[in-house]
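Comment thread on ticket #2218

A.B. wrote:
> Attaching the input chain for the structure job we discussed in standup.
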Amino acid sequence: MSETVSAWQLIASGDATLFAIVRLSLAVSLSAVAIALVVGLPLGAMLALMRFPGRSAVVVVLNGFMGLPPVVVGLTVYLLLSRSGPLGELGLLFTPTAMVIAQALLVLPIIAALTRQTVEDLWLEYREELTAMGVGPAGQVATLLWDSRFSLVTALLAGFGRAAAEVGTVMIVGGNIDGFTRTMTTTIALETSKGNLPLAMGLGLILIFLILLINAAAWGVRLWSEQRAG
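C.D. wrote:
> Ran it. Output below, let me know if you need it in another format.
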């Protein structure tokens, strides 16, 4: 009980260490989602519209990567960025940039796969109209992405939720360095093992609040889009 009170006190007092960790976590996760958004939305849309040999296999692999083990992503990025890896000369390992790359790779399949499904469903409805109007592939992608923007917000929020709650990936490539690469989830794991429960619980409360806020935003956007459509 005393740990819970201390956790709330840390939050209420604006503890500098706690909120520095929160800021870094949000910066890393938001950056990763932004990168995954730029790549995943057009990738998913093009995959929904294009027909080519092996497309079904690509879709299966993409959907399977939605459940890709985070530690595998972390290990892959670690090997790429380590000194003996192909990108080792960049010196990115154990930096926030490495954490952004790892989280972006983790979130990308989620956004791309959900975008593909959403756009493919919409394409069945708009195909004849867009074809009759002579809209090219790029225009089709842009039109369908815009018309499905409210549905795609849910995909983006799901990606952010996955990134914000991640531990293993950022632990491997970030190193959990105090004041530099320590995020909410890695700090919770570390401080719990050290017995520093107030800080761990304070970060846990903030993380739960963020996840609830994300889900509330997704529900609100969906409800608003349904009301507009109605």
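A.B. wrote:
> Thanks. Noting for the ticket: The mean pLDDT is 87.
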